[in-house]
Amino acid sequence: MGSGSALDRQRIRKILIRSTNWIGDAVMTTPAMGAVRAAFPRSELVVLANPIVSELFSPHPYCDRVVIYDKKGIHHGAKGFLQLASELRREHFDLAILFQNAIEAAILAFLSGIPQRAGYRTDGRGFLLTHGIPVRQTGCARHHTAYYVWMLNRLGISGGDGKLKLISSEGEKRWAREKLGDGRWIAINPGAAYGSAKRWIPERFAAVGDIVAKEFNARILLTGGPAERELGQDIESAMHTQPLNLIGKTSVREMMALLSRCALMVTNDSGPMHVAAAFSVPIVALFGPTDSTTTSPFSVNSRVVRKPVECAPCLKRECPTDHRCMDSIEVGDVLEAVRSLLHTSKSENGTIS
Fold first, then answer.
1. Could you read off the pLDDT of 128-175 as tens digits, one per residue?
2. Taking Cα atoms as reference points, which of 180, 128, 161, 167 lies closest to residue 37?
3. Selection from 214, 189, 211 nearest residue 200 by Cα
4. What share of the chain is helix, strand, coil (3-state, %, to 5)?
5. CA–CA separation, 154 vs 15, rounded Å?
């Protein structure tokens, strides 16, 4: 079928949504998932995701259940891949919507016997798709949320409220309340799973944490994944106030519940940044090597802090030079953004020096 050709809606009762492999990207697919739910309110929607991303959607209002694709476990290697295809074939899906751009996603949908397979014609996979959308038509400066929604629009799928969406259960909310207690909490997320080039300087995060804690009578929560434990320890050691350091100590769903209770988040471009945006938490986002036009927080209640340098955005995981895009961001730049979001009228006398 040609690109953008209409789906055979009469035959769609069960839909497989192949999610992306990164938390932030997966959160940015939720407006598109809302459109699928609105367009097919009586169909069963099943998300296929890796173990980490699967937590975002367990539960979620835009899907009925999640199938975990565990490449490091039961689905490891070619044998595991074929086993997953066999499992999916027994499900008898009518449509696969591939948010993941890799050819692997299209091969899996094909081997699973899914008759309608829709996605962008990336990674040389166009011949495997029954409804392939040319990615070049999206425009180069679309935010990722629009990138996924636009693909669905080309398929005749529209609807939903166009907003990011995540939820926490009542039990998770209760756990977060007990963990944090009363008072104002401000989250600092100093890591970035994609690579070190996206990370701001730990000592400056510590300085921001100290000043913000004092100025706004707040407690500081440090968030991040297991690989960032050492980074969290460095920041905790550099701070004069005592943060609650939960870096590497929470599940994805626990992290979601904690962030939903925060008054503000200071963060690098990262998955937790998008999680906070989905819970309408005000965000100060620090950008260097990545493109803020495509991956900034999808929220009106956010501030992007970046400095124009000739080599950014380079989109590299590790900086090959002197990290100038992040090094040029000063403590005062971040504090200015924090204050603008928290609507403070306090003087800046001496707080940046």
1. 999 999 987 555 568 999 999 999 999 999 999 999 999 999 999 999
2. 161
3. 189
4. 40, 15, 45
5. 17
The backbone torsions φ and ψ at residue 174, rounded to the nearest 5 degrees and listed phi first, read -65, -40
Closest by CA to 263, choosing from 321, 330, 216, is 216
Distance CA 318, CA 314 (A): 10
Helix 229-238 to helix 202-215 angle, to the nearest 10 degrees?
50
Residue 66 and residue 60: Cα distance in Å, rounded? 9
Three-class SS of residue 300? coil
Overall pTM > 0.90: yes
Report strand pairing: 184-189 vs 131-133. unpaired
Helices marked H in 135-201 — which ranges?
A: 144-154, 170-180
Element (H, E) at 170: helix 170-180
Q: Which residue do the tokens 């476990």 mark?
A: 73
In sequence order, what are the beta bridge partners of 1?
none
Q: How far apart are CA 141 and CA 236, in angstroms?
A: 38
Comparing CA positions, the residue from 32, 61, 64, 28 lying closest to residue 48 is 64
Q: Does CATH number 3.40.50.2300 belong to domain 170-342?
A: no
Residue 244 has φ and ψ, to the nearest 5°, of -95, 105
CA–CA distance, 306 with 17 (Å, rounded to integer): 34
Residue type, 292: S
d(CA 14, CA 16): 7
d(CA 124, CA 103) in angstroms, rounded, equals 7
End-to-end CA distance of the chain: 63
- Domain 9-154 sits in CATH at 3.40.50.2000
Q: Do residues 277 and 297 make contact, with C-beta atoms less than 8 angstroms apart?
A: yes
Nearest partner of 157 among 95, 113, 102, judged by Cα: 95
Each residue of 27-57: pLDDT tens digit?
A: 999 999 999 999 999 999 999 999 999 999 9
Kindly report, residue by residue over 16-32, the tens digit of the pLDDT.
999 999 999 999 999 99
Helix, strand, or coil here: 273? helix
Q: Boundaries of CATH 3.40.50.2000 in the chain?
A: 9-154, 170-342
